[in-house]
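#struct-pred

JT: dropping the chains for the assembly here, can someone run the whole complex?
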Amino acid sequence: MRIATDIGGTFTDLVSIDENNGCMVNQKSHTTPPNFEHGVLDVIKKSELSPKSIDTFIHGTTTIINALTERKGGKTGLITTKGFRDVLEIARCNRPDLFNLVFHKPEPFIPRYLRQEVAGRMTYKGKEAEPLNIEDINAAVTYFKEQEVESIGICYINSYANDEHEHKTAEIIRSLWPEVFITTSSTVTREWREFERTSTVALNSYVMPTASSYLNNLSEKLEGIGFKGKSYIMQSNGGTTTFDQAKQAPVNMVESGPVAGVYGAAILGQIIGEDNLIAFDVGGTTAKCSLVDNGEVKVTTEYRIERTDSYAGYPIMSPVVDIVEIGNGGGSIAWIDEAGSLRVGPESAGALPGPVAYGIGGTKPTTTDACLLTGCLSADNFDNLVDLDAVKDAVVKNVGEPLGLNANEAAMGIIRVAESNMYNALKLISIRRGYDPREFTMVAFGGGGPMHCASLARELNIKKIVVPVAASVFAAWGMLMTDLRHDYIRTHISPLAEAPVKEINDIWQGMQEQAEKQFSDEGIPVAQMICQYYVDMRYIGQEHTVKVSVPTVPLKEEDKEVIKQRFHEAHEQAYTFRLPNSGVEIVNYHFVGNGGLTRPKLQKISPQTSDTEDAKISVRPVCFNESGWLDTPVYNRSKLGSGAKFSGPVVIEEKSSSTVIYPGQNVNVDQYGNLIITEEAE
Amino acid sequence: MTKIINSVTLDIVKDSLIAIGNEVFYSFARTSMSPIIYETLDYACGIADSDGHLLTQGNGACGFIGLISPMIQAVIDKFGKENIKPGDVYMINDPYMGGGSHLSDIGMMMPVFYNGEIIAFLGNKAHWSDVGGMAAGSFTTDSTEVFQEGLRFSGVKLMDSGEICQPIVDMIKSNVRFPVAAEGDMWGQIASLRTGSKRIIELCEKYEAGTVRESMRRLLDQGEIVARKRLSECANGTWEMEEYMDDDGYGNPVLIKVKVTITDDEFIADYSGSSPQVVSPINTGYTSLCAGAKIVYMSIIDPELVINDGVFRPLRVITEPGSILECNAPAPTSCYFESMLYAADVLWKAMAPVFPEYLGAGHMLSVCAVVLAGNHQDTGVPFLIVEPTGGGWGASAAKDGEVGQFCVGDGETYNVPVEMAETRYGIMIDEYSLHTDGAGCGRFRGGSGSVRKYRAMSDNQSFTASFGRNKYPAWGTAGGKDGSYNYFEIFRADGTHEGPMGITARAVLNTNDVVNMVTCTGGGYGDPLKRDVNRVASDVRNGYITLAQAKKDYGVDVDPVTFEAVRKEEN
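RK: done, full complex below.
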């Protein structure tokens, strides 16, 4: 038995699969801050699964991001190169809030008095320019002991090129003070840019005590109920790691939950034979989208927590699945701005007070409320008794009256603006990055994804949409399907043409050995490991890089030409042009190791034998973009078998979600129960 | 039903126009060959309607605010709209024409045609690393005429109906120091204009030209509505302020003067009476002066508004031709940002008591621009640094000033990481830290400036810098004390020392000479004796101020071990 538990803001979800018969179980229970592990035990208990029968436990958690955003980490000290303790505070000098002359700059996680300097210097080439001063380290340790810090981060200038000084420093600290948590920058990342690396170290050190106590507690509790299997945690790179490794680099777990859905989309794509996917996830407060290119989830190291259009945020340089997230979900509030324009989000009614339709105190109209009025959602599919008059009043009062519209027109306006925001986000991850949406299949999930996907896919000319089974808990399903994954990135700049092949292969070799060690520590046989090799490249003189996959390792001289061609293509795709006569150089080496674990098989559903009329709930008027109001049949998804087919307009309802299919679109249920929506042949 | 589709559709098209503005902005940065563009984002892209009114502008640096539309208008005036053809691209960097700043900022504009008619114009403006002239990096501190500052394009056709005018490109490449980068950036700018044009045409195809035009009108009108509404809520009145900016480079004082008038529907900044133009390159043209005023105006009206000409309709900027703020040819303008930022600063200082919620005490003010040229010690390859330096910002009514930030004329501008600088340039950086001189005391304290030390790793490097605010400190307000000054100094390998100073042109640095660049602490806000005692203790613990300063400036005794703090009773 394999189970995944995903702690969200409101609910802790569980999805399990029995590898013997493919049988799946879903369950939800309340999230229990601050002792999140209680919620995990609750949901296991509620699912009635026997803890002894669980072989693999996979966990996604918001504990780390919460500890960071709520500033509830441990007291942390930082050691830097002499002359550079303020790098963390100066940051990059940028001011995204351009015209706000009383803007707030992010305050460092580690205050100045807890940042100590140590003499010793490496050059950009990794040569020692000045030896490490041991006295300075001893003094820093003594001071940190007096200050009673719990965790120490170390980040030296140019340590991406040579990390000896960091290792030596960590060794000395460990010998003087074995109990203290230690992070060196080179264990978290070996990319250049000292501020971003220092910030990553600071954040990692800061959450280490929290991560450790949380994971230790959880392990103990799980053992307490008889669990004896292997446990893994979901990382931001779309793969998992063991609890032990996670305690060393907790900062790799910041986006633990959200990335699972994207990974799930990639896996679902493999199962149904689709390589190019757009994952589209609409939850209560946000919509997220991400692109899967040729079966690969895209990762970036340009992630920042708390970043907004007007706030610089804090960089974390570890690989995070590249997701565009906007403040538009089911609970997003519609409002009229000062100039008289209709806006939706980013403010959300959340779970409390929630949309007006929930009847628990919400008075501001949300996207969910608008969808009720246009017939996309049915009041009967809510857990509570919906007061439709209250919904209508809220929409009229807040949107209709200021714009001179009636309730239905205002509701349609809200949906159009919300979908326009989502449309721009979807364009951002596809067209704007040089991808043609026509070549992609959309996987729509989360509570709201299935509702908006048909209209958005049509706008983007996407030909095919998949709405997976149990769409609202799809992220937890994705987690079930994950594999161990570790990324190793190293900055080493060399012009491709001149770089000796041996030097390149030595770098790969070094990373490979590091990966082999890490995987064997996690109990994965080296032979089972699946390796991928990438380089970040650019034209000489440029700053920004493009990621290119490397055909084979060890590399031969003639492979360079292949890499160069791939780079030209990738550059043209991303930036519309290539410079065939310009030199190209490698900036970063990126090695990805996967554990090669076998994935559970999906269960097929039984074929549709009876008349689909049996699954029909009702016929109701639904308002569609362009076509206006149409009488639309509504079906119960759980009663449909594989092979069932409909032509739009049609609505297919399930628990906590509802799929809206437009006129001119067809939908059929595939062998696994996925809804496949396609445009009618023209 | 029709009506809602209209009002909502107009908003959707409007948002799409803004999204296009952002797209062309970021796509350009990512392909640029010049660090000043891709790290410092010293450029702007804008979309204007068919009459040249700015609809939306993507900004990296505030100093470019509103420069795009005057540039487009200057080209329309020169050539006549009827003579502008699809696929034309025009180039303009004339400091005395619309949209001018200094020659290094190359402007380009292109018409967008739909169904045979101009539906919009696109423009961008970017700081090229070099445009020729007397000094590497083109901008220098000792030019006396514009002719020494590089190539000047007073509205020149670069592409004719989609065909590149090769003689112009050849001429550029023969006259600049980094022809590859120049050509790369030229094509980057053209590509970004083309991308924007393609997107606008797509928008017209999807929503029809009439709807797009109507949305453009709505965008401008809405900007104006919000701006006028805000003005009507402000106190009416007239305020005056004058300040000396450092000097003219020859020791003579330079006066910047403003009279601000706010009525129910106008905001007038009258700079009459400011000094006449000077022989050193700190003069600015009129549109850059306006940019300075617009920054402060925006901060008061609404910092979050989309930048467009509708928002600026209520603003009027008055000055006298021939003055340092509206210079005539051939006055040099390399360091035009010094007078432009002083003009912004006097306006800021005049308004600070009126709008304490939006404007705090004085900041580091100057770009503190550094130009360093030489050859890399390991590769021998020539390098060129053109970069701003971060400094302290002033405190305000609700918080301490921010530390180590670029000046108001910059914005979403990034410093060059130490590790990249050491790889790319022939220097090692000995120190990058906060300048904790404890100046700018107040109930809220001014933010610290920064200290950046460059060690030359090869001989014959050439160092040029313009650190304004080297004579008059960042001002305090509401009882807060003044901050400090910007300066730099050179420590020679032989033990000699030069400086401190604020301006130099092409000082030679040899191996192991170190230049120490220090920026000021911002001004304080409010009475220092009212600063929270615990904050004073924390300031001492963190080394922002000394024990002695705590006692003398804040009247607080802090225990150096326990950091317990007590304010002495006032006698």
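JT: nice. The first strand of chain B starts at residue 43 and ends at 49. Chain B has three domains: 2-225, 360-531, 536-571.
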